[in-house]
UniProtKB/TrEMBL annotation:
Enzyme class, UniProt record, top EC level: transferase
Transmembrane annotation, as ranges: 447-477
Coiled coil: none
Domain of life (superkingdom): Eukaryota
Protein name per the record: Receptor-like serine/threonine-protein kinase
Species of the source: Ziziphus jujuba
Keyword Methyltransferase in record: no
Bilayer disposition of the protein: Single-pass membrane protein
Keywords attached to this entry: ATP-binding, Disulfide bond, EGF-like domain, Glycoprotein, Kinase, Membrane, Nucleotide-binding, Receptor, Serine/threonine-protein kinase, Signal, Transferase, Transmembrane, Transmembrane helix
Family annotation (InterPro entries): Bulb-type_lectin_dom, Bulb-type_lectin_dom_sf, G-type_lectin_kinases/EP1-like, Kinase-like_dom_sf, Prot_kinase_dom, Protein_kinase_ATP_BS, Ser/Thr_kinase_AS, SRK-like_kinase
Stretches assigned to the Protein kinase domain: 508-781
Subcellular location: Membrane
Signal sequence annotation: 1-24
Length: 796
C-alpha cells in the first residue's frame, strides 16, 4: 500500500524553511513534494535517499562528460547505477530536476527540457524512493502515477517485473551509459528475446537468443530469493533464467544486460570489507549466463560485423568474458571501442595484373572462422592448394580451410570467432615484413648502392664521418642521453629493459589487477606499439637482493628459456627500488579458472593441457641451458593462451624471492596440497618436487576438482587418496562421473591415473622424471603398475 501524504506541518516547513534545499532534502530523506528540485553540481550535493539509505536518487557525474540523473546503490563504494533518465543526453553543471503537477522534469543549464516522466495527464502530488530502488510518483489519492520499475534501462532489481512490451537496452560500453548495441525484450507475443540493436548501424536487428514461449510468456519476475524466471499469466513458471538454493538476504542483487550482449546476474555482500568485497557474477552450471557464448551466438549473416566488428574476431576469455582481437596484420580502428572493428596495417595486394604473390605470406589461426561473406568455395583440396589459390587472387584477404574444403573471403570479413567448437583454421594473408610499403625493392636497392658508392668516393663521406664523430662525443658527454640509451641485457637473448614510468603508463598507473600473491601483484598492460600488444606486468614485493647485478643475472637466466609451453618473458624493470617482470599476456587465464569453473572442459582438451604442462616441465628440468626447478606447480601457475595451450608461468622466480616467500612451513616452498613430502623431512630437494606437484595437478585435470574439498564425502576429501582407492577397486568411472567423453575413453583415464600415482610416490627415487612422464602421457612408453600409495602423502 502507498504511504500517506506528508503532514501539513512538515509540508509547511519544507516549503517555507529559509534553509537551503539540500538541508530540506537531508531531513525528508526519501520523500519529495511539489517544488522539490536538485541541481547538478561539481560540488557534492545531497541526493534523495530511500528509508534504508541503500538507494539514492540524484545526479551522478560520468567522468568529465556530464551528469546522469539516476538511481544508484548508495551503501557500496562503487555507487552502482541501476536506473537513469537521460542516458543518451547527459546534462552539464547547472541543470535541474524539479517536481511539479505533471511529474519530474529535467532541464539543462539553458532551461531546455531534456526528459520528463509521462504520467498520461494524471496529476502528481508527491514522490519517494523505496527500499527496493523503485522511484515512484503518486497522485492526489496516493495511487501510483509513474514508477522507474516500469521504465528500466539496462538493469533489473529484486521485486521488479518486466512486462510484455518492455525491454532492457545495454549501455554502449562499460563507462558510456548511452544506449548500446543489444536489446533484451519480452515481446507482445510472449517470447523473451535477445536482439542485436542496429548492430552495426543500418543493419537489421538479429535475434541471437529466444525463450521459445510464443503465446504463453506473460512477465519476467525477479524475486528476493535471487530467482529470475519467465512465467505464464496463470503463474506457471515457463523458464528459469537464474535460480539460487541459498538465501540472498545478506546480498545486494542486480541482473543486467551488459554491453557485450550477455544477460548476467550479480550479487554484492552487504556490510562486507569494501576493500575485498565487490560485485560477483552469480551463475550455475545448469543456468549459465544468457547466452553462454556470445561469440558463437551472434553468428547470423544479418549481424554483419558479428560480436566484435569487421575484420576482428571474438573469443571467450577470462571469467567467460568476450574479448575482441585483431588478426595478425590488422589493428583496431578505435582502440577505445574495439567493436568498431579492425583495419589492415599493410598495403593490400595490388590487382594491377603483375604477379605480387611472393610479397605475401599466411598467418595461421586454429579454431577460427569468419563464417559469412565468402565469394568462392572449393572442395577436395589440400591446405597448400588453398593458400596458393588465395595468394594468386588479389581480392582474397583470408582463406578458411576445413576438412579438405577452402573458402576465399575478401575484406571486410565478418562475424569472426575463435572457439574450441570450431574445426579447421583461418589463413590470414599478410604482407611479408621485408616487403612492407616503403621498403625498397631490388631496383631501389641498386640506386641506394650507387649513391653510397658516390658518397664513399668523395669528400662528402669525410664530412659525414666528422659529423658522426661530433655527435658521438656530444652523446657520451651528455648524461641525459646516456639515461635513455637502451642497455643491452646479454648476448643471445631478446629482453627489453623498461623504465618504471613506461610500465606505469602501459598499465594505466597499475589500474587493472590480474592477480595477487604473497610475493607479487600482476597487472594488465598494453605496449605503446602499433600493434598494441597486451602484456602482464608482475611487480615483485620481496627479493633475494636489492642489488642490480644479482637481479639482472637471474632475470637473464629466465630470459634464456624458450618453449611453447612456457610463458615468455618480454623484459624487466630494474630501477631504484622497483623490480618488475614483463610477460606476454595470456588471454584465457589460469588452468584453475579453466577446470574449477562452472562448466567442465572437454576431456581431450584436458589431456592436451596435461601433456603440454609435462613438456614444459621436461624442458625446464632437462633441456634448457640451466636446470630450473619451479617449486610451485599448481593450476594457478599454469596459464592458457589464445589457443588454450598450457603455458607454465612463474618458473625461475624461486631464485628471485626471499627464502621465506611462498612458504607453507619453515623452509618450505610451494602451496598447500601440492608440496612434496621431502620438504618436511629436510631431504635434498630435486626436480622430483615438481614431479610430485604435477601428479596432483594431473589428478585435478582428470577429475575437474580440487585436491582437497572439505564438503566432499569423507573418503573423497583428499583427491589423491580417493583416486588411488578408485584405481585399486577398479572403479575409475566414479572419478569421471557425468563426463561422457572421459567415460568413453576409460582406458586412457586409467593410464593417466596410473601416471599420477607414480608421480606422487612418497619416495622421490620412485617418481619418474618429467621426460618419462611426458612419454607415458603421449603413450610412447608403457605405464607400469604403480606401487601402493601411502594415505598420508597428500595430507598437507
Amino acid at each position: 500500500m502507498a504511504s500517506s501524504p506528508l503532514p501539513w506541518n512538515l509540508l509547511y516547513l519544507l516549503l517555507f524553511s529559509p534553509f537551503p534545499q539540500s538541508s530540506a532534502i537531508t531531513c525528508q530523506t526519501h520523500r519529495i513534494t511539489k517544488g522539490f528540485s536538485l541541481t547538478a553540481s561539481f560540488n557534492k550535493h545531497v541526493p534523495l535517499e530511500s528509508p534504508s539509505r541503500e538507494f539514492a536518487f540524484g545526479f551522478q557525474r560520468i567522468k568529465s562528460d556530464g551528469f546522469l540523473l539516476a538511481v544508484w546503490l548508495n551503501k557500496i563504494p562503487e555507487k552502482t547505477i541501476v536506473w537513469s533518465a537521460n542516458r543518451d543526453n547527459l546534462v552539464q553543471e547547472g541543470s535541474k530536476v524539479v517536481l511539479n503537477d505533471s511529474g519530474l522534469i529535467l532541464t539543462d543549464q539553458t532551461d531546455k527540457r531534456i526528459w520528463h516522466t509521462d504520467t498520461f495527464g494524471v496529476g502528481v502530488s508527491y514522490g519517494e524512493i523505496l527500499n527496493t530502488g523503485n522511484l515512484v510518483l503518486y497522485d492526489q489519492i496516493s495511487a501510483i502515477s509513474w514508477q522507474s520499475f516500469n521504465e528500466p534501462t539496462d538493469t533489473l532489481l529484486p521485486k521488479q517485473i518486466l512486462s510484455r512490451g518492455k525491454s532492457l537496452v545495454a549501455r554502449y560500453s562499460e563507462d558510456n551509459y548511452s544506449s548500446g548495441r543489444f536489446l533484451f525484450m519480452l515481446e507482445s507475443n510472449g517470447n523473451l528475446v535477445l536482439y542485436t540493436r542496429n548492430f552495426p548501424q543500418n543493419a537489421p536487428n538479429y535475434a541471437y537468443w529466444k525463450s521459445e514461449t510464443e503465446g504463453s510468456g506473460f512477465q519476467v519476475m525477479f524475486n528476493e530469493s535471487g530467482a529470475i524466471y519467465l512465467q505464464a499469466k496463470n503463474g506457471n513458471i515457463l523458464k528459469y533464467l537464474s535460480m539460487t538454493s541459498s538465501s540472498m538476504k545478506d546480498f545486494y542483487q542486480r541482473a543486467i544486460l551488459e554491453n557485450d550482449g550477455v544477460f548476467r546476474q550479480y550479487v554484492y555482500p552487504k556490510g562486507g570489507d569494501p576493500t575485498s568485497s565487490g560485485w560477483h557474477e552469480f551463475r550455475s552450471e545448469s543456468l549459465p549466463s544468457i547466452p553462454p557464448n556470445i561469440c558463437t551466438s551472434i553468428s547470423g549473416e544479418d549481424t554483419a560485423g558479428g560480436a566484435c566488428g569487421f575484420n576482428s574476431y571474438c573469443r571467450i576469455g577470462v571469467n567467460q568474458r568476450r574479448t575482441c582481437s585483431c588478426p595478425s596484420g590488422y589493428t583496431f580502428i578505435d582502440p577505445s571501442d574495439p567493436v568498431k572493428g579492425c583495419k589492415q596495417n599493410f598495403e593490400a595486394q595490388s590487382c594491377d595484373g603483375e604477379d605480387h604473390d611472393d610479397l605475401f605470406e599466411f598467418y595461421s589461426m586454429e579454431q577460427t572462422d569468419w563464417p559469412y561473406g565468402d565469394y568462392q568455395h572449393f572442395k577436395e583440396v589440400d591446405e597448400e592448394w588453398c593458400k596458393k589459390a588465395c595468394l594468386s587472387d588479389c581480392f582474397c584477404a583470408v582463406a578458411i580451410f576445413r576438412g579438405r574444403e577452402c573458402w576465399k573471403k575478401r575484406v571486410p570479413f565478418a562475424n569472426g570467432m575463435m572457439d574450441p567448437s570450431l574445426s579447421g583454421k583461418a589463413l590470414i594473408k599478410v604482407r611479408k615484413n621485408d616487403s612492407s610499403p616503403g621498403h625498397p625493392d631490388k631496383n631501389d636497392r641498386s640506386v641506394l648502392v650507387l649513391i653510397g658508392s658516390l658518397l664513399l668516393s668523395g669528400s662528402v663521406f669525410m664530412n659525414l664521418l666528422l659529423l658522426l664523430a661530433a655527435f658521438l662525443v656530444a652523446f657520451y658527454l651528455n648524461p641525459k642521453s646516456k639515461a635513455i640509451q637502451p642497455n643491452p641485457v646479454a648476448s643471445g637473448i631478446n629482453l627489453q629493459v623498461f623504465t618504471y614510468e613506461e610500465l606505469n603508463k602501459a598499465t594505466n598507473k597499475f589500474n587493472e589487477q590480474l592477480g595477487n600473491g604473497a610475493f607479487a601483484t600482476v597487472y594488465k598492460g598494453v605496449l605503446p606499439s602499433e600493434d598494441g600488444n597486451l602484456i602482464a606486468v608482475k611487480k615483485l614485493h620481496h627479493l633475494v637482493s636489492e642489488g642490480e647485478r644479482e637481479f639482472k643475472a637471474e632475470v637473464i637466466a629466465i630470459g634464456r628459456t624458450n618453449h611453447r609451453n612456457l610463458v615468455q618473458l618480454i623484459g624487466f624493470c630494474n630501477e631504484d627500488q622497483h623490480r618488475l617482470l614483463v610477460y606476454e599476456f595470456m588471454s584465457n587465464g589460469s588452468l584453475a579458472n579453466f577446470i574449477f569453473g562452472p562448466s567442465r572442459p572437454n576431456w581431450h582438451r584436458r589431456m592436451r593441457t596435461a601433456q603440454g604442462t609435462a613438456r614444459g616441465l621436461f624442458y625446464l628440468h632437462e633441456e634448457c641451458s640451466i636446470q630450473i626447478i619451479h617449486c610451485d606447480i599448481k593450476p594457478q601457475n599454469i596459464l592458457l593462451d589464445d589457443f588454450y595451450t598450457a603455458r607454465i608461468s612463474d618458473f625461475g622466480l624461486a631464485k628471485l624471492l626471499k627464502k621465506d616467500q611462498t612458504r607453507t612451513t619453515t623452509g618450505i616452498r610451494g602451496t598447500r596440497g601440492y608440496v612434496a613430502p621431502e620438504w618436511f623431512k629436510n631431504l635434498p630437494v630435486s626436480a622430483k618436487v615438481d614431479v610430485y606437484s604435477f601428479g596432483i595437478v594431473l589428478l585435478e585435470l582428470i577429475c575437474c576438482r580440487k585436491n582437497f574439498e572439505a564438503e566432499a564425502q569423507e573418503n573423497q576429501m583428499i583427491l589423491s587418496d580417493w583416486a588411488y582407492d578408485c584405481y585399486h577397486d577398479r572403479n575409475l568411472k566414479l572419478l569421471v562421473e557425468n563426463d561422457e567423453e572421459a567415460m568413453a575413453d576409460i582406458k586412457r583415464v586409467e593410464k593417466y591415473v596410473m601416471v599420477a600415482i607414480w608421480c606422487i610416490q612418497e619416495d622421490p627415487s620412485l617418481r619418474p622424471t618429467m621426460k618419462e612422464v611426458t612419454q607415458m602421457l603421449e603413450e610412447t612408453i608403457e605405464v607400469a603398475v604403480p606401487p601402493d600409495l601411502p594415505s598420508f602423502t597428500s595430507s598437507f
